[in-house]
Amino acid sequence: MRVETKAYLILLSSAIVFDALFTLPPFLMKFGLNASIIYQFFHPVCHQIDNRSLHIFGYKLAVCSRCASIYYGATLGIIIYPALYSLSSAKLPSLWIFIVPLIATVVDFALDYISFLPRNTYFSRMITGTALGLSIAFFIVPAFILTFKDFVKGGAAQHEK
Amino acid sequence: MKNSSRYYKPALFAGLILSIINFAPGLNLVNCFCCAGLLVGGMLAVIFYKMDLQEGETLMNVDGFYLGLWTGIFAAGFETVLNITIGPLIADVKFQMFENLLTNLLGNVQIPPDIMEQLKQAIAAAKNPGLIDSLVSFFLTVMIYSVFTIFGALLTSAFIQKRVKKSVD
3-class SS at B61? Predict the structure, then answer.
């Protein structure tokens, strides 16, 4: 198996595990199991407010709807990346691919704090979040492949003098 | 891993800045926006490291990985110390700010009583941090912070290299 493919599969499986982890609590709680450790795990990176989170079986996910959309979007982006770009050429795309959805997400985020504008909704948070996640994947995949190649080559030992 | 000691200084500074951002009431709201504080922490580590490089040395992607990893570890460590030492003193301020944030996010809806109860429990825990709780929190924080700081650092090092390559071409 080629180094690029190996790196890609490691990244993809890590992303799927990460998504599964924050999606798992409702399923655990449905069967009467304790999921507090998973909520605690994601607590430092998300406010986890009930009214802002997606629910399954009446239980919230371990991250809010915007965070969940970003992570699902990133995994989706990782999945479709090989259909659009070659893994072996692993190049970072133009920064605009990231900046445009970032601006959309910032605007959506700001709607909560600008009183005269309409507030954001689940739908707007999920659309902007998914777009941002998708765009991030197009940077993460080549960056991860390049790093993995560095590791294989011997990494930090190869500092040029 | 070679030259690992070269990663400590930039990661230490970046971790310190990151832990202050995450700990300070008000500043920590930056993480409500897609964990921006954590990604910036990884980014800062790479920038500090690059500033430290001698002439002729190049930044590599693998450097970004280690810098991100160490930044996450240091940030979690600093934050745990801050939570134990200063945390109890500012727990009420944090509570007030989070209550204001909730009120703002929920609009006209009143804060549900169960959420208020959870908040009060969290504040009570912050006022009396136990050793076991702090240790568990430290290990969980190391894991989740490292994921984000590594990605912040990896993306930054990849972008810096792209710019360098472009200017060489």
Answer: helix
Strand, helix or coil for residue A43: helix
* Burial letters B70-97, b for 16+ CB under 10 A, else e: bbbbbbbbbbbebbbeebeeebeebbee
Assembly ipTM: 0.81
Distance from CA of A82 to the nearest CA of B (A): 19
Question: HSE (CB half, 13 Å, CA atoms) of B43?
Answer: 11
Q: Convert the pLDDT of each residue in A8-49 to its tens digit.
A: 999 999 999 999 999 999 999 999 999 999 998 998 888 888
Q: Count of CB contacts below 8 A, A vs B?
A: 105
B157 contact A CB<8A:
yes
pTM, full prediction: 0.85
Question: Which of A 87-106 lie inside 8 A of B, CB atoms?
Answer: 91-92, 95, 105-106
- Mean pLDDT within A42-69: 90
CA distance to B32, B123, B152, per residue, from A104 (Å): 16, 34, 20
Question: Which pair of structure tokens corresponds to residue A7?
Answer: 């790196």
Count Cα atoms within 13 angstroms, Cβ side, for A74: 23
pLDDT exceeds cutoff 50 at A81? yes
B79 in Cβ contact with B141 (< 8 Å): yes
Please name the residue that has the structure tokens 């992570």.
A71
Residue reference for tokens 């979040």: A129
Which ranges of A1-155 would DSSP assign to H, the alpha helix? 3-30, 36-42, 65-84, 96-110, 122-153
- Angle at which helices A96-110 and A122-153 cross, to 10°: 140
